[in-house]
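Contributing new complexes? Match this layout with P61.
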Amino acid sequence: MVRPLPQAEPFRIKVVEPVNMTTREERAKKIESTGFNLFSLKSTDVYIDLLTDSGTSAMSDNQWAGIMLGDEAYAGSKNYYNLLAAVQDVMGFQYVVPTHQGRAAENLLLSIMLREGNFVPNNMHFDTTKAHVLHKSGIPVDLVRQEAFDPISQYPFKGDMDLERLEDFLAENCERVPLVMLTVTCNSGGGQPVSMANIRGVSAIAKKFNKPFFIDACRFAENAYFIKQREEGYRDKSIPEIVREMFSYVDGCTMSAKKDALANIGGFLAMNDVKLYQETSGLAVLFEGFPTYGGLAGRDMEAIARGLREVVDEEYLAYRVGQVKYLGDLLIKYDVPIIEPVGGHAVYLDAKRFLPHLPQWQFPAQALGVELYIEGGIRGVEIGTCLSGRHPKTNDHDYPKLEMLRLTIPRRVYTDRHMEVIAVACANVWDRREAITGLEFTYEAPILRHFTAKFRRLGK
Ligand code: P61
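Output block (do not edit by hand):
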């Protein structure tokens, strides 16, 4: 019998960053002193940092080498042209406006397109997109399929837009919809993928109503990998082919290069329409910088250009998505409730099932995040009531259907041993779940409140 070799990292580790170990008592004090806000911890007080996969990737030797080739040209940087060529080759768009990060691309696109009272349909808005729509007096509308809200539904593409609802919505509100968006993978819904059939379907509907269609492409390569694994007709296609097909159905994309471009900073807006390029690059001068650097140093654009070409490597993606699944499978083994199937960049703990005794107004996912930090020095991020903010009309908490603690895995950073530590720490918190109490605000900022909120513990 020939044993199949286990799948391991398709790279060697060349540089390491030592991390601090802390005691449980120290961590309990530190988190209390921040007002129970995980964003306020110092990174040196965290052992395994799962706050985000954004800007936290380990860059490759090729990317670091590219950093040395960064030029400092204000205009016409060679690195901009390398970035443009990478976007044209990998994604197929004609024009690129570099930006300092993803939300800046959202700002440019939505500032040009949105008028007061306009709707933006999306499968599910991520918080920065939602905040930009609201900031421009627009109304974000989430039209994801219902399966997305069932944490144990095994539907393979829980990020899909509900096409029927999109079509009805456009038929009713056509005048007030300037563009249609789709977030791949769907971060607010558990990192769940969107199928090619759905991208094609959204594109057809957008065309029918003559609306531009933009993808929020932060995690486009992970999405392509799921299409290859799960969708009929794609098993024998290469990842670059799948990526090109995904983008062939859209007019452009917003991109945070801090995710699937494997870079530590940066983003861009890409599109095919020259008029939109002229308008958005003009606005970029005001908010980002000259359109051939967009708030980035040449070296950062070079790292993005190289990362975009690297990320579509299938072996890398098999390792990447495989590691996230490894953690998910361990948690399932320990009976810890998670959103299933496991997404592309993170495992999401289901706080409603984890802490059923805490109502949403007591921020159960945040309370869970605090306990996991105390237990193992592990920092997750709340994707729940605090992040969701207040409803613009009622001013009550805008309670999300899913209340989650996201354990976001940085790319190429942690080993499977780290995944085992995380799983055991979660299992220990699960065992003492009944003793966990809720939280209430002592400070709340008006926008993106989760970054600075302060809480106190409620009694039993
Ligand atoms: C994240 F706590 N995501 O998931 P920028 N679209 C999508 C994103 O996931 C995204 C952006 C646009 C982050 C970072 C983050 O409250 C938070 O480059 C689908 O971060 O501007 C970012 O890209 C924006 C974490 C953002 C947060 C906002 O961890």
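Reviewers usually confirm one structural detail per submission. For this one: The CA atoms of residues 35 and 454 lie 5 Å apart.
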